[in-house]
Amino acid sequence: MREAARRVREMAYAPYSNFKVGAALRTGAGRVVSGCNVENVAYPEGTCAEAGAIAAMVAGGETELTAIYVVADAPAPVPPCGGCRQKIAEFAGPDAVVTMATLAGDERAMSVAELLPGAFGKGHMEGA
Fold first, then answer.
1. Whole-structure pTM value
2. For residue 65, what are the CA distances in angstroms to 45, 82, 89, 125?
3. Residue 127 has pLDDT above 80, yes or no
4. What is the span of the domain harbouring residue 25?
5. Contact between 116 and 89 (Cβ < 8 Å)
6. Cα separations (Å) of 109 from 61, 79, 86, 99?
7. In this structure, are strands 32-36 and 107-111 parallel, antiparallel, or unpaired?
């Protein structure tokens, strides 16, 4: 996943921030799927790398991720934004590993439960 995330990061469309991010995830079937951030001049309309990888996974017919690796050129590993944490939690179990990395090789791994404690989940929708 590390190399897939680093490769796809180079494809990121980040002309405004120049902050390229790559993400690669492993699906429940063991396939590696990747995505990169895609900016828009109207900043809120951009797409995060994690969301892109998840969309590619779903488009490929899968809905479970077992691990995800996110890389950016930053001084410290960059965690997924709040929205991406919720997107990851939608498709991953609480023990799935989220690895955050820098191009220099610094890595930090956390479980989904550690990354998003108290996540809103399917159980909250029961009875709705």
1. 0.94
2. 25, 18, 9, 21
3. no
4. 2-125
5. yes
6. 27, 10, 17, 4
7. unpaired
Binding-site annotation, residues for Zn(2+): 48, 81, 84
CATH number of the CATH domain containing 108: 3.40.140.10
Q: How many domains does the chain have?
A: 1
Contact in structure between 80 and 22 (CB atoms under 8 Å) = no
C-alpha span between 54 and 91 (Å, rounded)? 8
Q: Is 126 one of the annotated active-site residues of the chain?
A: no
- HSE-CB at 11 with a 13 A cutoff on CA atoms is 15
Q: Report the C-alpha gap between 80 and 125 in whole angstroms.
A: 24
In degrees, to the nearest 5, what angle opens at C-alpha 37 toward C-alphas 56 and 116? 80
pLDDT digits (tens, 9 = 90+) for 8-53: 999 999 999 999 999 999 999 999 999 999 999 998 899 999 999 9
User: What is the three-class DSSP state of 100?
Assistant: strand
Active-site pick, 3, 10, 45, 50:
50
- Give CA–CA dist 36/9, Å, rounded: 6
Question: What letter represents residue 96's amino acid?
Answer: A
Known binding residues for substrate: 37-43
